[in-house]
Every structure is written in structure tokens, then in C-alpha cells.
Amino acid sequence: MDNKFVITIGRQFGSCGKEIGHELAKRFGIAFYDKELIALASKESGLCQEFFEKADEKNSGNLLQAFAAGFTFGPFQYNDFLSNDKLFQIQSDVIRKVAGEHSCVIVGRCADYILRDNKRCINVFVHAGMEERVKTVMNRQHISEQEARELIRKMDKTRPNYYNFYSDKEWGVASSYHLSVDSGLLGVHKTVDFIQKFVEEALKDK
Q1: Which UniProt keywords apply (predicted)?
Q2: Sign, CA torsion 90/93/97/99
């Protein structure tokens, strides 16, 4: 494929969505962005990276507590950055910039909504059954089964807030994406195979 394209990955906690996105980027030989977007947003704005980390995928809210906690920042006045809305705007600009510069895979951060006018953007949602997710979180975090279940329940309540607040779509609902896939059925590598073929076919005539 000669023209630039973007794959966005929405994912349930513990579904291996990040790993799948990273492998897709390797397969296509393109850039991968997850936490890297926070560093880029910090660099572009001159605002301390801690602000973006604090607001990362959380619902809009006041950042006065962050300032009260003593976070340092660049050449901006605090009145310019009282809400997560401003941070979202900065990250959105960075996402549009990287998508305009080169092909890439972007995990989370409402990238599918931000790039909704990009005709060569394929949006994927990765989910998995609870038992598969529990095993993954236990192995990844080195925690007990009970702790893993509690963490998943917490993330299932909080992760959609960011997406639902900033977009006009609903997180995790199939109609919000081009493809929704259960990674627990095929495993990471075969899920990557499946998504890769889907993307190649979907971009043929675009």
C-alpha cells in the first residue's frame, strides 16, 4: 500500500489489544503509538508530561488538584490549563499530526473519533472473555485471581468514560468500529493475522 494509512485500536483491559497493535505495526512496518503520544503532546505544548499522564483516558475534570499537588510545567499560565479538555485538544492535534505524517497504529485516546474524516483509517476494537482477561492480567501484573478480577471490573467502569465523554459514539459497541474481534478465540498472533488481512482488504479501493 503506497498511501499513508492508520489503524486505531480500542481495547478491553486484559484483551491484549496493545500487544496486538504493536505486532500489527511490526507486520506493516509502520509506527506505533500508545504512551508515546503523551510524550509528544508534552513536547509540542511545553506542558509537563505529568499532566497528560494524570488525565490519560479519564473523564473530563478540573486539574486544580494537580497544580495543588505541585506539578511543574512549561511556559504556560495555569489559567490556560484548568481542564482535561485542553489536554484532549493538544493530544488530538498530535494524533492528527502523526497520522498526517506517516502510516501508524494508534492505541486508545479516541483516535478513531479524532481521525473520523480520514478515509484511510481503519478502526478496530479488541475484546476477550472474562476468563481469558483474568489470566492475562494475572500474568502481566503478577497478582492473584481475585485482584485481577477486581482490577478488570474497575477498568471496565472507568475506561469507557474518556471515550464516551469526548466522542459521539459508545465505547465497545460494534457499530462504533469497522471491526470488533475477540482475541481470546484465536490468540494474539492469529488475531493479528486476521486483522492484517481485514485492513489490507479494506484499504484496497481507498
Answers
A1: Kinase, Transferase
A2: positive
